[in-house]
Each structure stands twice: as C-alpha cells, then as structure tokens.
Amino acid sequence: MERGADAMLAYSTQSLRSGVTVMSGGIIDHARAEALFVTDLQRSDCPTPAEVKRAIRLALQRYGGVSNCAAQVAAEFGEHPETAVARMQWVLQLLRRAYPAPELPRPREPREATGVA
Question: Is residue 115 part of a domain?
C-alpha cells in the first residue's frame, strides 16, 4: 500500500524545459499538510524529514486518502480552533524542512546581436 500513497503524491509532477522535474506546489503541499496534521507526531518528538515523510504515507494509508485526512483537519478546526491553528503552523514548518523548494537553474543570459543584416 505504501506505493499507492507515493503515487498519490507524485501524480502532479511536471518537467521544465531544462529537464528538471518539480512538484507543483499547491495541491501536493495541501495534501501533505492535511495528512501530516492528522498524524500522531507531536512537537516534542522533533521529527526528522524522513519521519515526516513516513508519517504522511502512513496517514494517507490509515485514512484512505487525502479527502479523509482533510475531513479530519476540518473537524479539528471546528472542535479545537485554538490548537488547530498552532498545529497547522508547526506542520507547515515541518513540510518546508522535509520538502525544501528545489533550486531551479538560472536562466541563460541573452546573447548580444551580431549586427548581421
């Protein structure tokens, strides 16, 4: 089942002209945040990036996908908004460490015109 969770997160990749493959930020980041939010990880655990990634995969398996994770997040925000906001901020910090933005190649400088008419 772990391969299915990876497939859910990897479906939204795109290749740039440079050949670099990057994940589209929006949907994937939201899915990861919702899945990580519903895990048992706590701030005091000081999870490593590998532990964060594993927790996301396990949450997607446990809850049967992103939409069920999102439903749990909504329930937490409804029942405990004061703690849910702080947890989501922490989750987003963890995600930035576990999935840093890729360094994209710098664009090439334009060549000067040769003056040939």
Answer: no
